[in-house]
Amino acid sequence: MAESKSLRKPVFTKVDQLRPGTIGHTLTVKVVNTKMVLQKGRADGPQVRQMRIAECLVGDETGMIIFTARNEQVDLMKEGTTITLRNAKIDMFKGSMRLAVDKWGRVEVAEPANFNVKEDNNLSLIEYELEEEIWKLVCSTQKLRLSLQQIQQNLLVAPPSRWWWLIKEM
C-alpha cells in the first residue's frame, strides 16, 4: 500500500519580516486601500483582454506594504477585506519594496482577521538605493567567482599547449 504524503503546513510571515529580494512568503493581511494605476485593453488574438494593475496598501499588526495586484487579483482587493497571499515575493520599484504574487502564487479572500493594521510602519516608504546596487554587485561577484573556478578547473585538466584556447574563450 502506498504511503500518502502529508502536505507541509505554510509558515506565515509578518509584514515587518519582509526584506528586499525575498520570495516564498505566505501572509494574511487586511486591505487598507486600493488605487487603480493602469487599466487598458490588450488585443490577444480575436478578443480584447483587459489588463489591470492596482496598488493596494495592505498590512497586519506589525506594519504595512504596497501590494501590486494584477488583473483578477484586483477584484479581490476591497477595502477592509482580509486576504491570504501564498508564495508572495518582494519586488523593488524605484528603490522601495512592493509585495507581489505572480503565476506561481495565490491570492485568496480569508476569514476576517481580528487584528488592527499598524499604520505607522509602512515598509514601502523605506528607500533601498544602496541595497539594490549592492545586491546587483553581490550577484555579479558570485557569477565571476563561479567563472573563475571553472577556468581554474579547465586549466588544471588541460595541457599547457591548450591554455591559449581556454584564455581566448574568456
From TrEMBL:
Pfam families: OB_Ssb-like. CDD domains: SoSSB_OBF. Gene3D superfamilies: Nucleic acid-binding proteins. SUPFAM superfamilies: Nucleic acid-binding proteins. Residues 18-109 form the Single-stranded DNA binding protein Ssb-like OB fold domain. This is Single-stranded DNA binding protein Ssb-like OB fold domain-containing protein. It comes from Gossypium anomalum.
